[in-house]
Amino acid sequence: MSSENQSSSDNAEGSGTLIHQEQSEGTLNLDVGSTDTNKLHDPQLPSQSDSITNAEPDTSKGGILKGIKTFFAKEVEEVSNVPTVKITFHVHLPSLNYVEGYPVIIGNIEELGNWEEPIVKLKQLKSEREHMHSNHSHWYSDPISIQNDRFENEIRYRYAYFVPKPKPEEKSKGITSIFKKGDKSKDDEKDKGESVDKKKKGKDAEKDKIESVDKKKKGKDAENESSSKDSKKNKNELNMREDGNDLVNETAKTQANDTSTTEDPSAKDGQDSIEDQKNKETKSDKKHKDTRNKEEGDLYFEDEAQIIDTLENFQPDTFPEEHYSFLSVTMTAVIQLNVDNRSFDWLKLFEIARIIDPKFTFIDAIQELRYNNIDDRVKNFLKEFIKHAKPVVNLIKDLNIYSNIGRWLFSNCNSFETLLFVWMDVIDHTKDRDFHLLRHFRPRVDKLVSSSRATLLANQFSLIPEELCVEVAEIFKAKALLLLKHRSIEWDKNNSEAILQILKDPQLDWSKDEFLEAMGRVSESSKHNLLLTFPPLLNYWFDSRFKTLKTNKLPEICRNWYFHLIELINGSDLHDSNDSKFIFAIYKNLSNIFPIVGKYENIFNDMLKVTVDHVMNCAVSDILSVTPQIATLEKEISVSYGEMVKTMLRKSVHKIDNNLIKILLQVCGCDNEILDIQSVLSEDIVCSVMTNLEAKGDIVKDHTKLSTTILNLLNTFRFWRLIFNATGRVEKLYSHPYVKQVQRYIHEFAKVMIGEDITLRSLNEILKYDTDILYQFFNFSINNKEVISKDLIKKHRKDCHGYLLRMDQLRTFYDRFCPIDKVKDVQKFLDDITNLNNNLEYLALKDALSDNHWGIHKKNMNSSRRAHRIANSHEIGRS
After folding, report:
1. How many CA atoms lie within 13 A of 523 on its CB side?
2. Which residue intervals are annotated with compositional bias (Basic and acidic residues) in the record (predicted)?
């Protein structure tokens, strides 16, 4: 519009406004009579210079004649002594070829017409109509004279398309508004559509009927409503609030609507309803539908590219700086539409934005780019941004403006990799810029980095340049701790190794408390792979600067970790709670971490205690069976295990029996009756058993007769054979006092046997055992030297048997063949035989074998043999 104010676009609500308010309300006063023309004229338009006149100041209002600033022209005249302003409207409209009508202006004063009788028709120059196949966007009106007193109240106008009715007899003609206000109430829309009689109604009525577009206090004009917050007009200027952003969007929406003759919904008086218009659809309406169907989908505006090209070629000396805000509004509108259409052409406008929108406020209108979730689109966008926008943005000196653009770029990065690309390749870094940008960069990093997978988190951190690591380290540490906190995350081997890598990364600069927190969360995990990362973490702690820092938390963390690891092993399918494999798995894990904690006695002892507490709940046989395997572990571990086993056996072993033999075989891992001691641990346990037996003293007692001791030892022959025939590590066993004592007793008794000093009773008891057993028993020796031969044992067996047989022959002879009444001294012989039999425990073998041993019975030997044989034959016969 041109006069003393002209707009090339419409406002956000689709209406233009001429404002006149008192200064106390923070608006502009229009004081006609200014001699300041400040004329800018379109060379293609008819000259209007002859209609421009000067008016005297209105001293009654105390006004100062000031110019009405316009884009193209202004005209002020006085007719019949009534001051007037000539207004020429200029506007860029989208192509509406499918509408069979023409654009008009309606307003709330009679000079502008109304919905019922539009009198201001817009037109195009012939050259423009022919340009681009009649699609040129520029329209203008004839000059309209408006009396100055009209400006005492608010003047509002709206662009519309006038569509003639298909039936000429109808009284009213339809008007299609190219702007619709979806955010206003129905009552407001009705008020706007009604005809306005300015002369009969006051200022308050006008505000109820027509939306007020008030100027904010201290020069905050209507561009502030359409995101052009930087354009501030002089408080005495005439302002036309025409938001080009909504002009373009609302126009495109109207083009896509499924109706060709839609009236303002509030314009009920004097015109047909929308439904009536639909029911009377003409061929023109059908044409509109066909066009809409072809373009249904994205918003469409034919002249979008032309406007961009026009703005791109803008020359700064074309318009006064105070009118740049209007261009800024138009630029913002076309940029928003271009973005909505997923195009990058708008990036060319950064250069012009540097002039007409130096604060680049248009960014606020496109906070979320439509293509920011499509990788290829984002890459292409950044490529174009670097080409067109980056050179301009790099020239920005204001840190707040630059950081705002950086924030906008960051917010539209849909991946961490894209965000890093923007930081490294798009941003022109300086120390001051980085300080401001990092406030926006860090939150975006926090949003984009992974919170579900450690592998992705580690990979993302590896992409960060070294100089930037310190700026985002806290974010990655927080994410890592969050990952460790979530119990539902599955920790496979790769993710476990990745979190270990993160925790050990020196660039993250973990503090003592942070690292302890991470170790604590690992120690409380129920995931096997994650628990296995604890030993390397602990090792990292002791190898780093942390080891010099005092903390009471570490032993408890280690104890908790080992407890949870044991619980996990115990609950797995591989091991039963009473399985020897489970027991060894516990000690094996302790062995794995021993190189790390072994030299820290308090930590290691805590872990040993946890181990023993779990193992003691298992079966004794399962515990003993893993002894050979435990013996292969570190000495500190095997010794601890040995002490536990010895304590158990001390309480459970009370005597030598088959169970004790089984225990010894399990301790040594033997499958047969040979005790093969292959480790110091097994030897130590066996020796402990011998110590316990010695303390019991049930078999060998110093005050016991040798023969009785030997008999006791023979009763436990299997055990002693196991001990004296043991192989492997037997040095300690054979040097055990109890073993040596038993061996000494056996050797002493062997000497008695050899010297025939053994009593016949003892010999008779000993000879109850098999010759092979006796032979092994009496030859138990460390050097395997034979002490007693089998022949000697056989001889002693023969001699003892012969002596007892003679005693039996003599008694049979005297009892059965020498009656007392016939043999006078037979009782003497019987008494002597009885005496000999009663003293067998004192009668040494060698004495019994002497020639004079039988004395008075010697002459009866032959008779007694014959009598015994006869008696036995008679016994056989009776049986």
Report:
1. 21
2. 180-244, 265-297
